[in-house]
Every structure is written in C-alpha cells, then in structure tokens.
Amino acid sequence: MKKTIMVVDDEEDNRTTIKMVLEKNGYNVVLAINGDDCLRKLETEFPDLILMDVMMPGTPVGEVVRKIQYTKIAYLTVVRTSEAEKENLLGHANIVDFIQKPFDINEFLKRVEAILK
Amino acid sequence: MTFLGKMAEAGSAVYILPESQSHELIVKLAKELSGQSVCYISLNKTFSALSELFQKKKIDISKFLFIDTTSKLINYVVKKEKACQFISNPGNTAELFEAIDKALKHKVSYVIFDSLNVLLVYIKEIRLKEIITGLISKGKAADAKTVLIAVRKENEEGITKDISDAIEKVIEADEG
Fold it and tell me: Residue A74 pLDDT > 80, yes or no?
C-alpha cells in the first residue's frame, strides 16, 4: 500500500518540487501551505510522515509540532543547529529526522525511505 | 581588501553573498570581527550552532552579543545564556527591536543582521524598508556600523532595490 506524506512548506516551488519527486517514487502526497493548514488537514488526512519546513509565517512550528501526537515528523530546514540541539530534538517522540536544505534529491529520498521502513 | 576595509567609510551596508559560499563567507566575516564588540542577529542559525561554529574556527566571540530568533521556533527548551537573547520567531519585529535596544546599551561596534532573505519569509516586502531603516537608525544612534547580510537568490535584486535609500553601501562578496 502506498505511503502518504504531508509536505508542509510555505514556498510553492518547494511544495511542487518535493511533491513531484515523492509521487514519482511511489508516495501519495498531501500538501499544506503552513502549520495552521497542516493542523486543519490532519483532521481528515492521516499521513505516515510529515515533512515540515521550519520557517513559515503563521503559528510557529514548535507550537504546531506539539499538537501533532502520533505522526512522524521530519523537519526540512535552512536553520542551522548544533549537534547537541539535533540530538535533543530527535529525542522527542515523533520528530524523526532533521533534513538540512538545500538537499540532494537522492539523499532525501533515502532518508524518507528509511523513516518509513 | 577585507570586508571591514570596504566598510571603512560606510555606516551601513548590505553584504551580498553567493548562496553556495554563504556559510564560509559568514565565518570569514566573523573572523574579521573576532575580539570586537558585535551584536549578531541571527535569523537562520541558532545561538548554539553559531557559538559551536565560531569556537571551532577559533573566533573570539567573548564580546559578541547574540540575538537568536530561531531556537525558540524549534527547540522544546531554550536554556538562558548570558551572551544571547532569544526571541520567539524572526517575524516578531517588536521583540526583535526590544532585544536590539537592550544589546545596544552595551558598547557595540558592529550590528550584523543575518539575513534579509529570512526576514522576508516573515514580513511583507512593504515593511522591509521600514524595519531596515529602524535597524540602521538604532545602529547609528549607538555609534555602531550595521551590516545586513543578503544571500544572492532570485529575489536578491529586489531586496537591495527596496532598501537602497536606507543603506550607504552595497558590498558584493568576492567569489573564489
């Protein structure tokens, strides 16, 4: 059965590109334009993974993530963090990866596949 | 010529970096500022990441005061730091200006704003000039030079154009 991934990013170009890449590789994709849209869509959509941009207008991502309890979340971000911060973040239940933008598509797909295994 | 040499006569400048080398060029700039009094406003790197990076590169940041706008966005717990003020997100300009006022109460030679591109994720372009003018005025009032970092992307020309009246100089990083 196809896995479903929700892509949350305020930049249309990013959403379109990531959607195209994921669909080409056999995933269903749901799009959300920011954290608030993501929370709204989670009332009716049940993705296996959320790929969440960190820098978006609207409700800060930290607050959005706290409201998502059971879905795996991978951050997609241009924000640089220290190794200690990454470890700390990954220690929280549903945050499973921290993917630095810009990313290599093949590497990105490998990481998505590993998360969903 | 060093960046600070290019900045000699100017009180404020936009420093344009090519995207592929922005990380290295920011480290290079920080090396030039090593040991000086600097207010470093980061919109895209956490204080923890910056201090880890600068210390690894042996940059003396003992007189740096940081304003970190991203740690509270992503971390569950943000530990208080003497050298850093944490604000809720890069778009909260009221909190940002309050933090800048607080930092500029100390004697600061340079205000580094990293970066304009990220600011534009959060604010409408129409407010950019107002915010940048406010930032530069605060720097001037405190006798500090203001450096606004912009990463050269598709929208870079627009950024520089929008704020050209507010800044004294545009400095393009040397590629290489």
Answer: yes
Nearest chain A CA: its distance from B175 CA (Å) = 20
Q: CB of A73 within 8 Å of any CB in chain B?
A: no
Question: Which residue of chain A is at minimal alpha-carbon distance from B119?
Answer: A55
Q: Give me the residue label for tokens 């990463």.
A: B151
Task: Flag whether residue A54 sits within 8 Å of chain B, measured between CB atoms.
Answer: yes
Pull the structure tokens for residue B168.
Answer: 């004294």
**For residue B26, what is the DSSP state?**
H
The nearest alpha carbon in chain A to B118 belongs to A55
How high is the pLDDT of residue B150? 92
3-class DSSP state for residue B122? Answer: helix
At a CB cut-off of 8 Å and minimum separation 6, what does A108 contact?
A21, A99
Separation CA A30–CA A19 (nearest Å):
8
Asked whether the ipTM of the predicted complex exceeds the cut of 0.90, the reply is no
